[in-house]
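Sorry, explain these tokens?

___
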Amino acid sequence: MEKTRLGARVALYPLPIVLVGALVGERPNYLTVAYCGIVQHDPPMLAVSLSRGQYTTPGVRERGTFSVNVPSTDMVRLVDHCGIVSGRSEDKAALFTTFYGDLETAPMIAECAVNLECRVVAEPDLPGANALFIGEIVQVHADPRCLRDDVPDIKRINPVLFAIHQNVYWRLGQPIGEAWSIGRHWSPPRD
């Protein structure tokens, strides 16, 4: 099968949409981010990529903490708004109920299903327009309605997904199989 070459570009689908929270000066701010992902399991770490020119970026550097807030699809208009306007011109924290956890300097959004408090452990010097922050997850806060057997349930969270090159938000579909199980019954096709 021949494939079309697209060149070097971001082509990982889908991307989760999160709201990154940080104190900028003494004021909490929230920024819509799609470049966010798990780095490792133990200790739990994730990475967020923020434009160096974003209003939030100096706040993450100054405090060395940030939060990752997972919104549900019913928040999509508000989430998109937070990606359109800057904290320089609008107090986006006024749009949410802010709370703090163990770190005391990583503002979190009560309306989001899951909140991860992170301590910056590294900021690799990468080329390009973005700053990459690797954060150790020190605590996870979850709305009890989004849990199943004390674990966040993806269907109950109903996260916002993003197709970057189409600039379209998506919601989840149906499960297709159990991880580390469905492949046990695979066998090569027979001629």
Observations:
- The chain has a mean pLDDT of 95.
